[in-house]
Amino acid sequence: MRAMMMYLFLIVAVMALAFPLIGVVAIARRSRMAKRRRAAMNLKGSVGRVVSKIAPYGAVLVEGELWPAHSFDGVELADGVTIRVVEPRGHALLVSSR
Fold it and tell me: pTM of the entire structure?
């Protein structure tokens, strides 16, 4: 009986610690996504470089952050090419070669 009580206490203690942690992680994730949405709006005109070939989709590094990107005019952009952000488009950036 005593072993069962200890086991039950252990389960309750783990659950009491896990639920707040899950909540904190969810809040932090939502906050980060909100910051990215706001940050994307401020990137228009910024300069960066291609880190994953854009044909017409890829990835760029702008102001130290990695962003999914689409080519503005459909032109393929190779790795290392300098780009300029034309406009944010959702969670991605519309870019053109500089």
Answer: 0.61
